Amino acid sequence: MKKVTAGACLIALTLTACAKSPDKISADYVSPTVYSSKNCGEIVSERNAIATRVNKLADDQQSKATSDAVATGVAIVLFWPAAFLLATGDDHENELASTKGHYEALTQAGIKQGCFSV
């Protein structure tokens, strides 16, 4: 009975410790009015820089999610101490959500000012 309980706890721990895939991370809300004082050139430039950062964070987050999935599979099937691998590496979920929010706010501000077509 103790082994079943310990196994269930281990599975629950490994499943909750996994990093999210970047496409499952929603953007935090950022008001477009934050960028209302910027001109089109500034909005486009900053939006391009943010897009580069979003792509980098998404790549890093995908790598973390993939390694967590592998470690979880190994932990469940072969070797439970592999579950401790889930704690290694950086999870970029919060930063990615915030950066996605700024990208969306810049896009909305740019549309409002006529910088981008709809």
From TrEMBL:
Signal sequence region: 1-19
Keywords: Signal
Name of the protein in its database record: Lipoprotein
Organism: Oceanomicrobium pacificus
